[in-house]
Amino acid sequence: MDAEPESNLLPICPRCAYSLRGLPVEHRCPECGLAFDRRWRVFGGQLLPGPRDAGARLPIIGLAYAVFWSLVAAVLVWFAAPRGWTSWLLLTVVAAVTALMAWLVFTKPRKFVAVGPEGVVIYHGPTRTQRFPWTQLGRAEFNIARGGVIFLAAGKPLRLDRSTFFRSNYSEMDRCVQTLNSYPRPRETAASRNTPQQTPSAST
Ligand SMILES: [Zn+2]
Protein backbone atom coordinates (compact mmCIF):
# COMPACT_ATOMS: atom_id res chain seq x y z
CA MET A 1 0.00 0.00 0.00
CA ASP A 2 1.26 3.47 -0.89
CA ALA A 3 2.06 5.67 2.07
CA GLU A 4 -0.29 8.64 1.97
CA PRO A 5 1.16 11.97 3.08
CA GLU A 6 -0.13 12.99 6.49
CA SER A 7 -1.73 16.16 5.05
CA ASN A 8 -4.08 14.04 2.85
CA LEU A 9 -5.35 12.02 5.79
CA LEU A 10 -8.27 12.64 8.11
CA PRO A 11 -6.95 14.94 10.88
CA ILE A 12 -9.62 14.42 13.55
CA CYS A 13 -12.24 11.84 14.49
CA PRO A 14 -15.51 12.84 12.78
CA ARG A 15 -17.47 11.59 15.80
CA CYS A 16 -15.60 13.13 18.75
CA ALA A 17 -13.00 15.49 17.20
CA TYR A 18 -10.07 13.61 18.82
CA SER A 19 -6.80 14.25 16.93
CA LEU A 20 -5.83 11.30 14.71
CA ARG A 21 -2.42 12.67 13.68
CA GLY A 22 0.28 10.02 13.62
CA LEU A 23 -2.18 7.13 13.87
CA PRO A 24 -2.32 4.29 11.29
CA VAL A 25 -4.53 4.72 8.21
CA GLU A 26 -7.01 2.09 9.40
CA HIS A 27 -7.50 2.14 13.12
CA ARG A 28 -9.93 2.79 15.96
CA CYS A 29 -10.39 6.17 17.60
CA PRO A 30 -8.59 5.99 20.98
CA GLU A 31 -11.23 8.28 22.45
CA CYS A 32 -14.60 6.95 21.21
CA GLY A 33 -13.73 3.61 19.54
CA LEU A 34 -15.01 4.49 16.06
CA ALA A 35 -13.36 2.25 13.41
CA PHE A 36 -12.02 4.71 10.84
CA ASP A 37 -10.00 4.86 7.66
CA ARG A 38 -7.96 8.06 7.47
CA ARG A 39 -8.41 8.13 3.67
CA TRP A 40 -12.09 8.93 4.31
CA ARG A 41 -13.61 12.10 2.93
CA VAL A 42 -16.01 13.15 5.68
CA PHE A 43 -19.09 15.35 5.33
CA GLY A 44 -20.80 16.69 8.43
CA GLY A 45 -19.89 15.56 11.94
CA GLN A 46 -17.11 17.41 13.71
CA LEU A 47 -15.57 18.35 10.33
CA LEU A 48 -18.45 20.53 9.19
CA PRO A 49 -17.00 23.87 8.08
CA GLY A 50 -17.41 26.87 10.34
CA PRO A 51 -18.46 25.14 13.58
CA ARG A 52 -17.32 28.09 15.67
CA ASP A 53 -19.32 30.63 13.71
CA ALA A 54 -22.39 28.43 13.82
CA GLY A 55 -21.86 27.79 17.53
CA ALA A 56 -21.73 31.51 18.26
CA ARG A 57 -24.93 32.17 16.31
CA LEU A 58 -27.00 29.30 17.65
CA PRO A 59 -28.14 30.82 20.99
CA ILE A 60 -29.21 33.97 19.10
CA ILE A 61 -31.16 31.90 16.56
CA GLY A 62 -32.79 29.99 19.43
CA LEU A 63 -33.67 33.20 21.24
CA ALA A 64 -35.08 34.84 18.10
CA TYR A 65 -37.16 31.71 17.47
CA ALA A 66 -38.54 31.76 21.03
CA VAL A 67 -39.33 35.50 20.92
CA PHE A 68 -41.08 35.17 17.55
CA TRP A 69 -43.36 32.31 18.62
CA SER A 70 -44.05 33.98 21.97
CA LEU A 71 -45.30 37.04 20.09
CA VAL A 72 -47.49 34.82 17.88
CA ALA A 73 -48.83 33.13 21.02
CA ALA A 74 -49.39 36.54 22.67
CA VAL A 75 -51.55 37.68 19.74
CA LEU A 76 -53.57 34.47 19.85
CA VAL A 77 -54.04 34.68 23.63
CA TRP A 78 -55.04 38.36 23.34
CA PHE A 79 -57.92 37.54 21.00
CA ALA A 80 -58.94 34.10 22.25
CA ALA A 81 -58.86 34.35 26.03
CA PRO A 82 -59.86 36.89 28.66
CA ARG A 83 -56.92 39.00 29.71
CA GLY A 84 -55.75 37.82 33.09
CA TRP A 85 -53.00 35.94 34.84
CA THR A 86 -53.99 32.62 33.17
CA SER A 87 -53.25 34.10 29.75
CA TRP A 88 -49.81 35.21 30.86
CA LEU A 89 -49.15 31.84 32.46
CA LEU A 90 -50.09 30.14 29.19
CA LEU A 91 -47.82 32.49 27.30
CA THR A 92 -44.91 31.74 29.63
CA VAL A 93 -45.42 28.00 29.13
CA VAL A 94 -45.51 28.44 25.32
CA ALA A 95 -42.31 30.53 25.42
CA ALA A 96 -40.53 27.98 27.64
CA VAL A 97 -41.54 25.04 25.43
CA THR A 98 -40.47 26.94 22.30
CA ALA A 99 -37.10 27.83 23.80
CA LEU A 100 -36.56 24.17 24.80
CA MET A 101 -37.46 22.97 21.29
CA ALA A 102 -35.07 25.50 19.74
CA TRP A 103 -32.31 24.32 22.07
CA LEU A 104 -32.94 20.66 21.14
CA VAL A 105 -32.98 21.43 17.42
CA PHE A 106 -29.77 23.46 17.46
CA THR A 107 -27.75 21.24 19.77
CA LYS A 108 -28.56 17.88 18.14
CA PRO A 109 -25.54 15.58 17.85
CA ARG A 110 -23.97 15.88 14.44
CA LYS A 111 -24.41 13.14 11.91
CA PHE A 112 -21.83 12.45 9.24
CA VAL A 113 -21.14 10.47 6.09
CA ALA A 114 -17.64 9.14 5.40
CA VAL A 115 -16.64 8.17 1.84
CA GLY A 116 -13.61 5.91 1.51
CA PRO A 117 -11.91 3.22 -0.58
CA GLU A 118 -13.96 0.46 1.05
CA GLY A 119 -17.33 2.18 0.73
CA VAL A 120 -19.52 4.54 2.71
CA VAL A 121 -20.09 4.88 6.44
CA ILE A 122 -23.15 6.75 7.66
CA TYR A 123 -23.21 7.78 11.30
CA HIS A 124 -26.76 8.57 12.45
CA GLY A 125 -26.06 8.73 16.17
CA PRO A 126 -24.53 6.80 19.07
CA THR A 127 -26.77 3.78 18.44
CA ARG A 128 -26.87 3.63 14.64
CA THR A 129 -24.02 3.46 12.13
CA GLN A 130 -24.45 2.00 8.64
CA ARG A 131 -21.59 0.70 6.47
CA PHE A 132 -22.02 -0.11 2.77
CA PRO A 133 -19.38 -1.51 0.37
CA TRP A 134 -19.18 0.05 -3.13
CA THR A 135 -20.83 -3.06 -4.61
CA GLN A 136 -24.08 -2.02 -2.85
CA LEU A 137 -24.03 1.67 -3.72
CA GLY A 138 -25.68 3.53 -6.58
CA ARG A 139 -24.97 6.96 -8.00
CA ALA A 140 -25.73 9.91 -5.73
CA GLU A 141 -27.73 13.01 -6.57
CA PHE A 142 -28.75 16.17 -4.77
CA ASN A 143 -32.54 16.21 -4.68
CA ILE A 144 -33.99 19.61 -3.76
CA ALA A 145 -37.56 18.32 -3.54
CA ARG A 146 -36.59 15.65 -1.03
CA GLY A 147 -34.21 17.98 0.78
CA GLY A 148 -30.99 16.05 0.71
CA VAL A 149 -28.48 13.80 -0.99
CA ILE A 150 -30.08 10.59 -2.28
CA PHE A 151 -28.53 7.32 -3.43
CA LEU A 152 -29.35 3.64 -3.54
CA ALA A 153 -27.72 1.63 -0.75
CA ALA A 154 -28.26 -2.12 -0.67
CA GLY A 155 -31.21 -1.69 -3.04
CA LYS A 156 -33.03 0.94 -0.97
CA PRO A 157 -33.06 4.71 -1.45
CA LEU A 158 -31.08 6.40 1.29
CA ARG A 159 -31.43 10.09 2.08
CA LEU A 160 -28.84 12.22 3.81
CA ASP A 161 -30.90 15.07 5.22
CA ARG A 162 -29.94 18.60 4.18
CA SER A 163 -29.97 20.07 7.69
CA THR A 164 -28.93 17.18 9.94
CA PHE A 165 -25.98 16.06 7.80
CA PHE A 166 -24.92 19.30 6.12
CA ARG A 167 -26.50 22.11 8.17
CA SER A 168 -28.00 23.24 4.85
CA ASN A 169 -24.55 24.02 3.43
CA TYR A 170 -25.20 23.57 -0.30
CA SER A 171 -21.57 23.55 -1.40
CA GLU A 172 -20.87 20.75 1.12
CA MET A 173 -23.82 18.77 -0.33
CA ASP A 174 -22.45 19.31 -3.83
CA ARG A 175 -18.95 18.18 -2.80
CA CYS A 176 -20.49 15.12 -1.12
CA VAL A 177 -22.36 14.11 -4.30
CA GLN A 178 -19.23 14.60 -6.42
CA THR A 179 -17.10 12.59 -4.00
CA LEU A 180 -19.66 9.77 -3.84
CA ASN A 181 -19.77 9.61 -7.63
CA SER A 182 -15.99 9.85 -8.08
CA TYR A 183 -15.41 6.33 -6.73
CA PRO A 184 -15.83 3.67 -9.40
CA ARG A 185 -18.71 1.29 -8.85
CA PRO A 186 -18.09 -2.35 -9.70
CA ARG A 187 -19.24 -2.89 -13.26
CA GLU A 188 -22.91 -3.64 -13.76
CA THR A 189 -23.67 -7.21 -14.64
CA ALA A 190 -25.67 -7.92 -17.78
CA ALA A 191 -28.52 -9.33 -15.66
CA SER A 192 -28.94 -6.07 -13.71
CA ARG A 193 -29.43 -3.92 -16.80
CA ASN A 194 -32.89 -3.07 -17.98
CA THR A 195 -31.98 -2.85 -21.62
CA PRO A 196 -32.20 -6.21 -23.36
CA GLN A 197 -28.89 -7.74 -24.32
CA GLN A 198 -28.10 -7.75 -27.98
CA THR A 199 -27.87 -11.34 -28.96
CA PRO A 200 -25.25 -12.09 -31.58
CA SER A 201 -26.92 -13.24 -34.77
CA ALA A 202 -26.45 -16.87 -35.56
CA SER A 203 -23.50 -17.42 -37.78
CA THR A 204 -22.72 -20.05 -40.43
ZN1 LIG B 1 -13.59 9.48 18.22
Task: Describe the structure in your own words.
There is one protein chain. It is built from four helices and nine strands. With 204 residues, the protein is α+β, with helices and mostly antiparallel strands. The protein folds into two domains: 6-48 and 110-182, no CATH class; 51-106. A four-stranded antiparallel beta sheet has the order 3-4-5-6. A hairpin with a 6-residue loop joins strand 1 (26-28) and strand 2. Helix 1 runs antiparallel to helix 2. Mean pLDDT is 80; it is low at 50-56 and 189-204. Bound molecules: zinc ion. Zinc ion is lined by residues 13, 15-16, 18, 29, 31-32, 34.
Structural class: alpha+beta
Into which percent range does the helicity of residues fall?
25-40%
Which ligands does the model contain, each kind named once? zinc ion
The average pLDDT is 80
Please tell me the total number of domains.
2
> Alpha-carbon distance between the termini?
51 Å
Rg over CA atoms? 24 Å
Listing every helix as H and every strand as E from the N terminus to the C terminus, the arrangement reads: EEEHHEEEEEEHH
